[in-house]
Write a structure and sequence with these properties.
The chain is built from 4 helices and 6 strands. By secondary structure, it is an alpha+beta fold. The chain has a single domain, classed as Dimeric alpha+beta barrel (Alpha-Beta Plaits), CATH 3.30.70. It has a 4-stranded antiparallel β-sheet with strand order 2-5-1-6.
């Protein structure tokens, strides 16, 4: 089964936010990079990509045949998706264990584990 792990950054400091990232010690910063490197080398993991900050988003909706765009994310900033990865594994428990290793899960964010439906 394939699972998409959706990384919700929440209040998690990232290098994209130099002020917040700078509040982490050098050891904490190295640990985040080390954790992501190890996760991406886990068998069955297809590394995803990080996403730009929510303020760079454009939300698109179609209403009565008209395309409407809005600057920013559809959700609250603290709920915005920060990145993702794909994990092919035998069961949900393994996907949950991997999600728990993602730094955002322990640093103020969350990781949503969702099965991928292949058509």
């Amino acid at each position: 089964m394939k699972y998409m792990l959706l990384i919700h950054q929440g209040e998690t400091p990232t290098p994209q936010d130099p002020e917040a990232w700078g509040r982490l010690s050098e050891d904490e910063q190295k640990a985040v990079f080390t954790d992501y490197r190890a996760i991406n080398k886990t068998p069955g993991v297809t590394p995803g990509l990080g996403l730009g900050t929510p303020d760079t988003a454009t939300t698109v909706q179609v209403n009565d045949g008209r395309t409407l765009t809005t600057d920013g994310p559809f959700v609250e900033m603290k709920e915005a998706l920060g990145g993702y990865l794909i994990y092919e594994t035998d069961d949900l428990d393994a996907a949950i264990e991997l999600a728990a290793r993602i730094p955002a899960a322990r640093m103020g964010g969350a990781v949503e584990v969702r099965p991928i439906v292949e058509w």
